[in-house]
Design a protein that fits this description.
By secondary structure, the chain is α+β, with helices and mostly antiparallel strands. The protein is built from 6 helices and 14 strands. It folds into 2 domains: about 5-140, 3-Layer(aba) Sandwich (Rossmann fold), CATH 3.40.50.12780; about 145-245, GMP Synthetase, Chain A, domain 3.
C-alpha cells in the first residue's frame, strides 16, 4: 500500500496578503512554504516554512504571515542604509546579499552591474525590516517609492490598507504626476463580486488606516490588475502610461 505524500504548496514571486493567506490556511491547514529570492542569486534568500504558518490568531502571530521568512541557511544578508551601513533591528534598510551563490556581474552590462554590485554586496532594491526573531518584512521596492509633497509613501503600505476594506479584493498603488504635490497617490482597485462603493468611500476608509498624506488622491476601479505570466504585477508598465511624454519619471 502506497503511503500518501504530503503536498507542500510553494509560493513566491509576489507577496500574498495576510488576509488571503489566513483564509487559505483555514481551508487546507498550514502546509505552505514561501521562498524569497532574486535572479541575481541562485538559491532562496529567505524561507517561511510550513511551521511558520501555524498561527493562533493573535495579532503577533498573524503578523508573521506578512513576512518572507527568515534568512536561508548559508546566506549572508544585511539590511543596509543608503551609505551601505547595517541598520538596527526594526529599522528599514535595503536587502543586500553576498556569497558564492550571488552573481558576479550582468552579462555585458557594466552600468547595471555598477549600480547593483557595490562594496561587495548585491543590492536587491527591496526595502525591508527585520524583527527580533529574525523574520524579514519587505516594505517595498526602493524605486517604487512615491514622493508626494516631500513625504515618502510606500505603495505596499497603502495597498495593505486598501485591502482591509471589506469590498476590496485587490489593489495596486502608483505615483502619478501632480502639479501641486509633485506626485499624487493613485489606487487601482478590484472589487469583490457584488460590491459597488464609490471612490470617496475607499478614500475615506484609508484615512482611518494610514496617515493623511498617504491616502489615495485618486481611485480607479478595474476588472483585474495586470500581471505577467509569473503572477507579478506589471507596476512599471502601468506607471509608464501615466508618465508618458515626460522626460523625467518624477515630478
Amino acid at each position: 500500500m502506497r503511503k500518501a505524500r504530503k503536498r507542500r504548496p510553494l509560493y513566491g514571486a509576489a507577496p500574498i496578503s495576510e488576509e488571503n493567506l489566513s483564509l487559505a490556511i483555514e481551508h487546507v491547514g498550514p502546509i505552505f512554504r514561501q521562498t524569497y529570492g532574486l535572479t541575481e542569486a541562485r538559491q532562496p534568500i529567505a524561507i517561511l516554512d510550513p511551521w511558520d504558518h501555524v498561527v493562533d490568531g493573535t495579532p503577533g502571530e498573524r503578523k508573521r504571515l506578512a513576512s518572507c521568512g527568515r534568512v536561508a541557511a548559508g546566506v549572508v544578508l544585511e539590511l543596509l542604509d543608503d551609505d551601505d551601513r547595517p541598520v538596527a533591528t526594526g529599522e528599514m534598510g535595503e536587502i543586500c546579499v553576498r556569497g558564492d551563490y550571488a552573481m558576479a556581474s550582468y552579462w555585458r552590462n557594466p552600468e547595471a552591474t555598477a549600480e547593483t554590485m557595490r562594496n561587495g554586496w548585491v543590492h536587491t532594491g527591496d526595502l525591508a525590516v527585520a524583527d527580533g526573531e529574525g523574520y524579514l518584512y519587505i516594505v517595498d521596492r526602493k524605486k517604487e517609492m512615491i514622493i508626494t509633497g516631500g513625504f515618502n509613501v510606500y505603495p505596499s503600505e497603502v495597498e495593505r490598507a486598501l485591502c482591509r476594506h471589506p469590498a476590496v479584493l485587490e489593489a495596486l498603488v502608483i505615483g502619478v504626476p501632480d502639479e501641486k504635490w509633485g506626485e499624487a497617490v493613485k489606487a487601482m482597485v478590484v472589487l469583490r463580486p457584488g460590491e459597488s462603493p464609490e471612490p470617496s468611500d475607499i478614500i475615506a476608509f484609508t484615512e482611518k488606516e494610514i496617515a493623511g498624506y498617504k491616502k489615495p488622491k485618486q481611485v480607479e476601479f478595474l476588472n483585474e490588475i495586470p500581471k505577467n505570466t509569473q503572477g507579478k504585477v506589471q507596476r512599471r508598465d502601468i506607471r509608464e502610461k501615466h508618465w508618458a511624454g515626460r522626460t523625467r519619471k518624477v515630478n
